[in-house]
Amino acid sequence: MAGMAAKMILGNKLDSVKGELGNLGGKEVTEEEAEQARLIEEQRQEQENERKARHEKMEAEREVERQRIREKYGLKKKTLEKEEQPEPDDAGRISRKKKTPAEMQAAMGGGAVEEEEEQGLADTVMNFFTPLTEKITSFFGK
């Protein structure tokens, strides 16, 4: 009995909730609603423009006050010297800038050193195998 009473009470409420959810999905936008949405967007844009204008006005007033204080106390405006300005690439870096392959070769003395080392290695290998090849060819008697 108690189960039946609970089902009747909750069943009616669940049906009403289901009905409301069904109305949300198939709603078409009418011209009046589209016009209202457009007006709301225009008002939001207007408020944003007013906020930006107020902010610019306050910032201009602050800059005037800053300049007055600089003049009163003989302070210089903070500006970075050209040599003090960080490179745009290094703005947020903690470590040093990584070198490109060309920079690494230039730092090592250029690419000629590597070619000489490779040529020296090739000569060493050939000098090792030349006597062996001569012995093998003499053994088999060409």
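Above is the first protein from milestone M3; the second protein from the same milestone is given next.
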Amino acid sequence: MDESDDEHHRVLNLIQAKDGDGAERVMREHVRMSHQALMAGMDERRA
């Protein structure tokens, strides 16, 4: 959760710095990593 919180702060800081491309890049990576973690957790529950 701490990592997720840090990522959200990075996105906010990039938005405040008017770096939309950077904010989008960080948010897309955050969503990708969250999806991977969710899928890994589901796989573990099935095993």
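Note on the second protein: Residues 20-46 form the longest helix (27 residues).
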